[in-house]
Write a structure and sequence with these properties.
By secondary structure, the chain is of the alpha/beta class. The protein has one domain (4-189): Pyruvate-ferredoxin oxidoreductase, PFOR, domain III (Pyruvate-ferredoxin Oxidoreductase, domain 3, 3-Layer(aba) Sandwich). 42% of the residues lie in helices and 24% in strands. The protein is built from eight helices and six strands. The chain has helices spanning 16-29, 77-83, 103-106, 116-123, 132-138, 145-156, 161-171, 174-189; strands at residues 4-11, 33-40, 48-56, 69-74, 87-96, 126-130. Strands 2-3-1-4-5-6 form a six-stranded mixed β-sheet, with helices on both faces. Strand 2 and strand 3 (48-56) form a beta hairpin. The longest helix is centred in the last third of the chain and has 16 residues, at 174-189.
């Protein structure tokens, strides 16, 4: 198997790191070597959070170079645009249509690009867009956006759905498991 490189990008509080842990567990269940790294940029204050997960027969480094990501899972539009240059020529961008204003926009020092989603679509080879926040709200808890997005990515990958569900069970606290199963399924079907 060729090494698969996945970048998960969002802002603090969106569950990016939990999503990468679930993804890593899924890869381990497939018998792959897995490397993961995470970067927190003022995450507690709504700053960028980026995790890089690489899986394959033998992975030597968790770091993904620009133009090498097979998948980018973006938890909001501006982060998708910011990290788009990491997507490979055959890569897939899974993007939540949610917009979260960074501090520079909140303070008036910058403007959120009105055409962020259009820029992503124009420059990414393949885009799967979904309103994961709205899906999560319909399920009754907006904190499951991360698992909705994982479900959307899982649909694109050649890993049995049962293994994803087993990883959810191994990673998510039991009291939240059923909600997360529903979130995964909703993302998978979106």
């Amino acid at each position: 198997m060729k090494t698969v490189s996945i970048l998960l990008v969002g802002v603090g509080g969106q569950g990016t790191i939990l999503a990468s842990k679930i993804l890593s567990d899924v890869a381990l269940r497939q018998g792959y070597d897995v490397k993961m790294t995470e970067i927190h940029g003022m995450a507690q204050r709504g700053g960028s959070v980026v995790t890089q997960v690489r899986m394959g027969e033998k992975v030597h480094s968790p770091l993904i170079e620009p133009g090498q990501a097979d998948y980018i899972v973006a938890f909001e539009q501006l982060e998708a645009l910011r990290w788009l240059h990491f997507l490979s020529d055959e890569g897939t961008m899974i993007v939540n249509t949610q917009r979260i204003n960074p501090m520079t926009v909140i303070t008036g020092a910058a403007e959120y690009p009105a055409d962020a989603l259009e820029q992503i679509k124009a420059n990414a080879p393949r885009v799967v867009e979904l309103n994961a926040l709205e899906i999560a709200k319909q399920l009754g808890n907006m904190r499951v956006v991360n698992v909705v997005l994982l479900g959307a990515m899982a649909k694109q990958m050649d890993i049995p759905k049962e293994d994803w569900l087993a990883s959810l069970e191994a990673t998510v606290p039991p009291r939240f498991l059923e909600l997360n199963r529903q979130a995964f399924q909703a993302g998978y079907e979106a």
